[in-house]
Write a structure and sequence with these properties.
This protein is of the alpha+beta class and 82 residues long. The chain is built from two helices and four strands, in the order βαββαβ.
């Protein structure tokens, strides 16, 4: 089953760019998902299990490293790559 996710990260800190870039770099370490970024969000595409595992790992690491962070996500069934 294919999955498309749009995710935005909002670190609750003055230095917010570093944590966002770090999160995107972590996601890019997963070869089985496609990551597309723009100025508003990051989009992930791939098999459901691969995308969800990457999100689980990267969100957990982000909380551990940066503390309070807000994630806003949209999930849609299918591969909606542009």
């Amino acid at each position: 089953m294919k999955l498309s996710v749009e995710i935005s990260k909002y670190p609750l800190a003055e230095d917010y760019i570093g944590p966002i870039k770090g999160f995107i770099e972590q996601l890019n370490q997963y070869p089985d998902i496609r990551v597309i970024t723009n100025t508003m969000s990051t989009q992930l595409f791939g098999d459901y299990d691969d995308v969800m595992q990457a999100l689980q790992d990267c969100i957990k690491a982000s909380f551990a490293q940066y503390g309070k962070v807000v994630f806003v996500c949209k999930f849609i069934h299918g591969d909606l790559q542009p």
